[in-house]
Amino acid sequence: MKVEVWSDVVCPFCYIGKTHFDEALARFAQKENIEFVWKSFQLNPNLKTTLNQNLYEHLSESKGISVEQAKGMGSHAAQMGAQSGLELNFDKSVVANSFNAHRLVHFAKSKRLQQEMKSRLFKAYFTEGKNIDDLETLIALATEIGLDGKDAKAVLESDQYAAAVNADIQESRQLGVSGVPFFVFDRKYAVSGAQPADSFLQNLEKSFAEWRKENPTVQLQVSEGPACTPDKVCD
To answer: Is 206 helix (H, G, I), strand (E, B) or coil?
Structure first.
């Protein structure tokens, strides 16, 4: 059964929500039957990466709030993150456009490393204060998780996967996604926001039970004959 989640790399609640979902999935008896797919979403697609303004100043300017209020928002999110075992260092966060990071996640998906790439980007942005719009940084992160650095460089220096990112964003509009994270279970149920692990587990169990009824395990009638198996000599 497919679980899709629309998220942005620069969204703290997406990072927290992923952690809660991972906890729920670890407790789910049928986890080997779950396909988890990341979908792109940009909170601020027009944002220009800037290194001469910290995150609090950016939030103050873009949201029309004071710097102190922005710091309060960061403190609240950091406390939630800490409760989930995450270190969120907003003092170090770089104001960066996430489009190239989303392209890199799609590239990683083509190599079956989407989960690893998304997790590495979250940590790089929120914990390490890395610029996730810097190509050399993205290439280094890709290499860390096992992607070929030359291939990653070629992707990032082109417009590859830009259409895939835009398609995800367009699809989110069609589904009525207004905020992230937004988890969709088998295109039947949805969970919005970084809800507790128990909520994710309940939705997994409910949606999977319905999915299993529609997709029963195939029972084959087997006629035995001479064969080879991994655990014994051919007979």
So the answer is: helix
Q: Which residue from 159, 192, 194 is spatially nearest to 175, judged by alpha carbons?
A: 192
**Is residue 38 within 8 Å of 106, Cβ to Cβ?**
no
For the chain, give every domain's residue range: 2-214
User: Would you report the helix, strand and coil content of the chain in percent, each value rounded to 5?
Assistant: 50, 10, 35
Model-level pTM greater than 0.85? yes
Contact 185, 203 (CB under 8 A): yes
Q: DSSP secondary-structure letter at 232?
A: B
Who contacts 73 (Cβ-Cβ below 8 Å, separation ≥6)? 59
Cα-only R_g, the chain = 21
Residue 73 class from Cβ within 10 Å (0-12 exposed, 13-18 middle, 19+ buried)? middle
| Banded pLDDT at 219 (limits 50, 70, 90) | low
Would you call 185 exposed, middle or buried from its count of C-beta atoms within 10 A (0-12, 13-18, 19+)?
buried
- Statement: 2-214 belongs to CATH 3.40.30.10: yes
